[in-house]
Amino acid sequence: MAIAPPADRMWWRTPVARPEIIWIVVSFLWGLVMFFTMIYWHAYGKQNLSNETYRTTPMKYSAKVDEMVGKFQVRDDNGIPVVRPPAGGDVYMLARTWMWYPHIELVKGQSYKFHFSSLDLQHGFSLQPVNVNLQVHPGYEHVLTFTPDESGEYSVVCNEFCGLGHHLMLGKIYVVEK
Amino acid sequence: MSNQEHTNERVPVMQRVLDNPFLLLFLGVTMPTVLYIIWGIIEIAQIPVAP
Amino acid sequence: MVATPESLPLPAAHEEPRFRTCASTGLKIHLAAQTLIKANAVTAVVFLAIGGLFGLLVALTRWPAVHLLPADWFYLVLTAHGLDVLLLWIIFFEIAILYFASAVLLGSRIAAPRVAWAAYALMLIGGLITNVAVLQGGSTVMFTSYTPMMAAPNFYLGLIIFAVGALVALGVFFGTLVVARDERTYEGSVPLVTFGAITAAIIAVFTLASGAIILIPTYLWSLGLISMPDPLTYKLIWWGMGHSSQQINVSAHVSIWYLIAAVVLGAKPLSEKVSRMAFFLYILFLQLASAHHLMVEPGLSSEWKVFNTSYAMYLAVLGSMIHGMTVPGAIEAAQRANGYDKGLFGWLRHAPWGNPAFAGMFLSLIMFGFIGGISGVVLGTEQINLIMHNTIYVPGHFHGTVVAGTTLAFMAGTWLLLPLIFQREIIWPRIARWQPYIFAIGAGGISLFMMGAGTLGVARRHWDITFADASMSFSYPPAAFLMMGLNGICALFAATGGIMYILTVVATVLWGKRIADGQAVQLASPKARVVTEYGSIEHPKIPGTIILTVIFFVAFVLYYYVNWKYLAEVWPMR
Ligand code: HEM
Ligand SMILES: [Cu+2]
Ligand SMILES: [Cu+2]
């Protein structure tokens, strides 16, 4: 019984039954398959994180954001600038309580180097309805390349609790055909 | 009883390991401390400053 | 703190420990240990009642048609919900389990009762301080309290005191192991259930130490004494506590599964070696999965992420998959030996489904495996996490582990503790009988519907998924609203099952018929008594379990690759 010491003092030597051995082998192999699937995806899959990251400061980062806005603003959404950076260029996304700044316009099928950082607290970049989710930290600049493959209006929800206005934080990314 | 039969045998090594809670405690604390925490902190410490 | 003379594993010469012998199980029970078990278990149940109520309020707020609480209260109550159930209910109950698995199962005295009481007091005081801090309103930071968000100093102080108290209690547990060994209260190796408890305790040491290590500087920061702990480092170490505490739960509830199968059916493990090695894999690898929470974080390499999130090539998952077969396998073998040997599933049909301890245990086993376990591995896959991180899929997953799995298993264990430790007859057996089913429907439902809504992108910890007050407009698809509504309905079931549990337990403890010291209670179906005497089941045949295992495996593989397919459809990124 499981609530008494093993009846056989040398329980280590008790042979193990077939079904258990088979299940252990199957489970072990399945674990390897899952492990190598992740590695395979790094080599052949299309959705991976670069994990390219830099230490930054809110000041330094907002300067880059402002520079981008100054150069590439095309219009505004109720006062929030919409920028259209050149294809292949850098896109600086800033999170702060409680907005995503600025809004972005991209061209379908082109690649963009996105940068993420926060001015204050942690925020959660949740791109909807694509459903891609990234954590955004203050003090760190996270860099990755996105290639939007369908046009439309996308929303950026914040899905890391960031205070009482957390549910007000909503940004936009527009993907256009040309 | 099986207990009697075995009294002179040596307890197998792996069984002795599993019977030693303090050795297990050592392993169970060291593994995550090294592989998760220390390795993680080393990586965070190596993040370069933004250009 | 641990080094008072009381805690040293010396025979207490000054006062003879007093024991009673349990007429139902033959176990020799140290009365001081018994009282400690009672105190910790009752406190746990009180915190479950409070935290469960908060959970219901949260779920009713997230039910779009009800939207009960205003935003500030929602976030406050959600913070309190996480703390009260995840830390206080679970860890108090675990301390009760540890004392039971050491002192009671080994027939030993508990090492240092006074120190154990001090530990209890610290945990209680700490828990109360943090609760008060949250309810005062200045600490709505969620129980994760990520920096730079700052709570009131007492929020951290309470948690630190709680963690220190729990560490002291772990010291008593390890001390009791030493006492039992030195005083030779048992022969050979400790029972499997005790071994599982040792696993839980070891993981708990790492858990609570991580918690104390990160919360102390955070506390000093909130007092204005030092600068802010780096958010990324904070998160790394905090999850050493936050996730590992879930691994304590897994080890503890697996032990409870074995315990209930043994007490109710006389089941013995198919193989001591295999089951113990499965726990050993937990000890070595389970805690690495703290990395699950850092999959889409900047600054950690994919090597670190892949290695840690997979528990070093899924070796801890291997442990769980082993238990997933050996627990039902042991039950099947015992039931067949009990005479229920017809067909593939005769043993299961004739299982004691009317016994809430068994029913709760088996439902916990199934739901932990199919809902919590599978979703956990998928969610913890480095790249798949991209389409799930911080969506409500995450709470969906962990209500499958910690509610449908751990909480249900602990509830099931309570139905045994009441007669054996509290020596009270369950006051309303019919309510107890239905409780596991109602709670399981609710807990399983909230898990599945939150997972469903999360797949559609719904954010966790979010007051308004219509974004009515935001400057831009967006709304999740209608199916997501439907899921959140169904989640609310299931929450009502879970709450009903929870209330049935709490009322019955409290009433039993207060007014249940006393069971006299020499009086045995019937825990098992009469036939099972024969098997407890049964030396060994030499070659158990477990065809039913094999079929269940195959079904599980197929579900696992399919669900795993379906999610890779979902991932492959999102924007390419590198
Ligand atoms: C009546 C039973 C319960 C119901 C209806 C319930 C419901 C919920 C809901 C709807 C959420 C919020 C998800 C969100 O908005 O992010 C939540 C969060 C949570 N629940 Fe429960 N729950 C129950 C019991 C439990 C139990 C027993 C535990 C642990 C043992 C638990 C642990 C948690 C935790 C840790 C969170 C996350 C809090 C956070 O995000 O900070 N729940 N629960
Ligand atoms: Cu935010
Ligand atoms: Cu937010």
Strand-helix topology:
The complex is a heterotrimer of chains A (178), B (51) and C (574).
Chain A: H1 18-44, E1 52-55, H2 58-72, E2 73-77, E3 80-83, E4 90-96, E5 99-101, E6 103-107, E7 112-118, E8 123-128, E9 132-136, E10 140-146, E11 152-158, E12 170-176
Parallel strand pairs in A: 3-6, 4-7, 6-12
Antiparallel strand pairs in A: 1-10, 2-3, 4-5, 7-10, 8-9, 8-11, 11-12
Chain B: H1 2-6, H2 13-18, H3 21-45
Chain C: E1 19-21, E2 28-30, H1 31-62, H2 71-106, H3 113-136, H4 153-182, H5 192-222, H6 231-242, H7 244-265, H8 272-285, H9 302-309, H10 311-337, H11 346-349, H12 356-379, H13 393-420, H14 429-455, H15 478-511, H16 528-533, H17 543-568
Antiparallel strand pairs in C: 1-2
Helix pairs in contact in C: 1-2, 1-3, 1-15, 2-3, 2-4, 2-5, 2-7, 3-4, 4-5, 5-6, 5-7, 5-8, 7-10, 7-12, 7-13, 8-10, 9-10, 10-12, 10-17, 12-13, 12-14, 12-17, 13-14, 13-15, 14-15
How would you portray this structure in words?
The complex is a heterotrimer of chains A (178), B (51) and C (574). In chain A, β4 (90-96) and β5 form a beta hairpin. Chain A has helices at residues 18-44, 58-72; strands spanning 52-55, 73-77, 80-83, 90-96, 99-101, 103-107, 112-118, 123-128, 132-136, 140-146, 152-158, 170-176. Helix content of chain A is 24%, strand content 38%. Chain A contains 2 helices and 12 strands; from the N terminus they run αβαβββββββββββ. By secondary structure, chain A is an alpha+beta fold. In chain A, the strands form 2 sheets. A 7-stranded mixed β-sheet of chain A has the order 2-3-6-12-11-8-9. Chain A folds into 2 domains: 15-44; 52-176, Cupredoxins -  blue copper proteins (Immunoglobulin-like). The longest helix of chain A is centred in the first third of the chain and has 27 residues, at 18-44. Chain A is elongated. Chain B has 3 helices and no strands. Chain B has 51 residues and is mainly α. Residues 1-6 of chain B have low confidence and may be disordered. With 574 residues, chain C is mostly helical. Chain C has a domain at 30-242: Cytochrome c oxidase-like, subunit I domain (Cytochrome C Oxidase, Chain A, Up-down Bundle), CATH 1.20.210. Helices cover 67% and strands 1% of the residues of chain C. The longest helix of chain C has 36 residues, at 71-106. Chains in contact: A-B, A-C, B-C. Chain B binds chain C through residues 3, 15, 18-19, 21-22, 24-25, 27-29, 31-33, 35-37, 39-41, 43-44, 47, and chain C through 174, 177, 187-190, 195, 198-199, 202-203, 205-206, 209-210, 230, 232-233, 236-237, 240, 244, 276-277, 280, 283-285, 287-288, 290-291, 294, 298-301, 304, 307-308, 312. Bound molecules: protoporphyrin IX containing FE and copper (II) ion (CU) (2 copies). One copper (II) ion is lined by residues 95, 98, 123, 158, 160, 162, 166, 169 of chain A.
